[in-house]
Design a protein that fits this description.
This protein is α/β, with parallel strands linked by helices and 289 residues long. 36% of the residues lie in helices and 17% in strands. The protein contains eleven helices and eight strands. Strands 1-2-4-3-5-6-7-8 form an eight-stranded mixed sheet, sandwiched between helices. The longest helix is centred in the middle third of the chain and has 14 residues, at 120-133. The protein is globular and about 45 Å long.
């Protein structure tokens, strides 16, 4: 595996719903900078209108504000765009703006093989560029677990590509094996029999090559994100990454980062309830603009 800065995707042939006149989701395959096809879905989203908080109670203001923002969701390892937990996240954030979801390389219907957070930065870059091409002025990247590390590295490598960044349940450093779930994950990634389980049990095709060179770690990436607003979310019952991980990220972020340690929360998408997702949507609405 190798590391390189996030590349540029060729423009999609799918037109925005403002041109096509449809409110149905759009689905296409986006080419990445290194030629991988990424299965991607765009949903215009639903407007949440509160006459008590919008200026002068004007619905037009609420509609314009919501339509200007798009959330680009980066799922965790072994997820994909069709997984129920990914669709639930998209539905919840769709109350605050449009949503782009996609399957990382090696996952679901996307091409290529998973590099477990390295070249996935290119996949996110393609999705963010597509979101911009659909006419949205503000892009918020939201990543979970592996996707949480990817949104951090993407924001560090492509300054200004996102207007706000949310990283949920992300590791701070690579090669962590301090918990039983992470030891199982390393077996899945590094052993031939593990990669077979990944392919046929989790619909995830994993690259057998080791990282060379080792990519920028999340904790190294975080200081480079400023001044883009950054939110780090982590559960105090996370079975994969203990609390020293989010605390390291928050310390590296300094004053430009915000840390939420969530009581009783486990790991990633499955542990993010609707109340937390609503708080993330509210945070993004105030910080991204």
């Amino acid at each position: 595996m190798s590391s390189s800065p996030a590349g540029h995707a060729a423009p999609s042939t799918v037109r925005p719903d403002t041109e096509t006149g449809t409110h149905a989701p759009l689905r296409t395959f986006l080419p990445t900078g290194d030629g991988i096809s990424i299965d991607s879905v765009y949903e215009p989203g639903r407007v949440v209108y509160d006459a008590c908080t919008s200026p002068a109670g004007h619905p037009a203001f609420a509609s314009a504000s919501a339509s200007a923002t798009v959330f680009v969701i980066a799922h965790g390892f072994t997820g994909d765009v069709d997984r129920p937990h990914v669709r639930r996240i998209a539905s919840a954030l769709g109350r605050y703006g449009a949503v782009v979801t996609f399957s990382f390389r090696g996952h679901g219907r996307s091409g290529g093989h998973s590099t477990v957070g390295d070249r996935e930065v290119l996949d996110l870059a393609a999705a963010v560029e597509w979101a911009r091409s659909l006419g949205h002025a503000r892009v918020v990247t939201v990543g979970f677990s592996m996707g949480g590390s990817v949104v951090l590295r993407h924001a560090a490598l492509q300054a200004g590509a996102a207007d706000a960044v949310v990283s949920v349940s992300a590791p701070a450093r690579w090669y962590y094996r301090g918990t039983a779930p992470m030891r199982r994950l390393h077996w899945l990634v590094t052993r031939p029999e593990g990669r077979l389980v990944g392919r046929y049990g989790f619909r995830t095709r994993i690259d057998r090559r080791e990282w060379d060179p080792v990519p920028l770690s999340p904790v190294e990436a975080v200081p480079r994100i400023a001044p883009t607003p950054l939110l780090i979310v982590h559960g105090d019952q996370d079975g994969y990454f203990p609390l020293d991980h989010p605390r390291m990220l928050a310390e590296a972020a300094g004053d430009h980062g915000e840390l939420w340690l969530e009581p009783g929360m486990g790991h990633a998408e499955h542990a993010a309830d609707d109340r937390l997702l609503a708080r993330i949507g509210d945070w993004a609405a105030t910080r991204a603009g």
